[in-house]
Amino acid sequence: MSDSVFVALAPLLAVTLGGLLLMLAEVFSKRRSDAGPSSDLALGTFVILTAGAVISLGLWFVGPENLPGAETAAPYLIVDRFTLFFDFLLCLGGALTALLAGGYLPEHKLDRGEFYPLIIFSTVGAMILASAGDLLSLFIGLETMSLGVYAMVGFRRGSLRSTEGAVKYFLLGSFASALLLYGGALLYGVTAKTDLVGIGQVVKASADSAATGAATLNWGMFLLAMVLLLAGLAFKVSAVPFHMWTPDAYEGAPTPATNYMAVAVKSAAFAMMLRILVSAFGDPNSMSWASGWPPVLALMAVLTMTVANLIAGQQESVKRMLAYSSIAHAGYILVGIVAMVKEGNDAQGSVMFYLLAYTVSTVGAFGALILCGSRGKEAVSYDDLAGIGRRHPVAALTFTLFLLSLAGVPPTAGFFAKLYIVRASIGAGFNLLAILLLLNSVLAAYYYLRVMVYMYMREPRPGAPVAVPMRSGYVTAALIISAAAVILLGIWPSISLQLAIDAALAML
Q1: Is 36 helix (H, G, I), strand (E, B) or coil?
Q2: Higher model confidence: residue 284 or residue 82?
Q3: Phi and psi at residue 381, in whole multiples of 5°?
């Protein structure tokens, strides 16, 4: 491979090499502090993933098109601005998760060093997934990411709830992977191609031939392959009706692992969905409403938004509420993907901006939830948050900021994220979808406001022990970074939106 290929793959190589060095440092280090390994490993993981994000940003401004041969840096990987956007986003989500883990794990007697390599190598898998240009590399990236996440969900040994969530996630995740694999096999059987661009060329050529009555593609098998692929993708993004694993896995996992699933796994899954839909099915015939997948995704978006918001309002566990909130946000994003049928790159850019705003808002929400807990005890229920506004005002204030962003209240990042999705939907002529999204946003405001009511207007239960607020420099740092991003994206949203649109335009 040429030097330009190594440069193009620098974010992926840097994170992979950093993860290997981190494991070696933990194994061979003779120094063992009384506080456990988190202090060094959390910082090391943050530095490694931040380096990956910075390198991705640097390559963005250099332009992969200026590196000869970089756009097809490896036989099964594509490096373009779309890839670099998601490399940055995934490394950001992983780095902030490492900070949350650095504060959370020691407090809950989970301070074992293997958690941090799991974050790094799951992120490596997610980065491969975002850059996959072939069905084979797509599946390898998916499984690399998933295996690490399965282990993180079950990281709380001895906890029945954690074990239940991990087993449920593993079994259903394996089933979803099988659907994806079978769909990919059928797609290969129909098109004789495994690379996504080649599949797209075969589909377009067959559609053009069909217009003259000389179709060369078995459209029945092709549609079955699409159904299987969409079903597998729907599981990975937690879309209804493939969402049943999400609440149990989110609630049982350690909160940093829950955060990682909510931001990095979801972002990587949507990157995979966008890459498949645009590269393989992006010709005018496949992107038309009559092709079948846009109405299916539209129905899925409506069900996902509505079902998740209705159930979220009934939860007594804050983590389960945030799990259903994450499902609802998947529905909002699906609205933007449906709008790609007519709005194309603008709608895709809106989806990518939404994922950026959602990532920093969700990291902040889970980080604030960690900070609202007392030493050795998580804030799980709404009652645990009662009176936090007086006992821990900084944690309550930051939690409020991130909840307002998730609710889409101006001038936060979440407001403009939803605004751009609604604008794309209306521009595509899907006014009903836009109206349903707005109505669901109003519905979601109830359970976000409920948290604020408990924090500021409710007193702790009589006789409840006085909790000692948790203090953590790592969690505080994650909250500062997330809060700054939420505010800056709310003040200057157009800059990030334009970068996202540029990434969409550059997709091969």
Answers
A1: coil
A2: 82
A3: -95, 170
Show the tokens assigned to 96: 């902030």
Kindly state whether residue 217 falls inside one of the protein's structural domains.
no
Supply φ then ψ for residue 428, to 5 degrees. -85, -5
Query: How many domains does the structure of the chain reveal?
Result: 1
pLDDT at residue 37, as a whole number: 59
The string of DSSP codes covering 210-231 is HTTT---S-HHHHHHHHHHHHH
440 lies in some domain = yes
**pLDDT interval class at 79 (50, 70, 90):** confident
Residue from 265, 292, 258, 299 nearest 277 by CA? 292
Give the separation between CA 157 and CA 161, rounded to whole angstroms.
10
Is 212 among the domain residues? no
> pLDDT tens for residues 133-179?
888 999 999 999 999 999 999 888 877 888 888 888 888 888 888 99
**Token pair of 367, please?**
């980080």
Token pair for 328: 């609802």
- 239 occurs within a structural domain: no
Give the global pTM: 0.92
Residue whose pair of structure tokens reads 């899907």 in the numeric block = 430
User: 3-state SS string over 279-348?
Assistant: HHCCCCCCCCHHHCHHHHHHHHHHHHHHHHHHHHCCCCEHHHHHHHHHHHHHHHHHHHHHHHHHHCHHHH
Q: Tell me the residue range of the domain where 472 lies.
A: 287-508
d(CA 190, CA 500): 33
